[in-house]
Amino acid sequence: MKKTNYDLVILFSGGADSIMLGDLASQMNKKPLYLMIDYGQLHKQELTYAVDFLTKQNQIQHSQTIKIENLSIDSGLTGDGVQESYEDVNSFYVPSRNLMFISIAASIAENNGIDTIWYGANYSDRINIFPDCYQEWVVKVNKLLELNGSKKIKLEAPLLGLTKESVLAYLDGRGYDMDKIFSGYGDLEK
Question: What is the pLDDT of residues 32-45, one digit of tens each?
Answer without folding.
Answer: 999 999 987 867 78
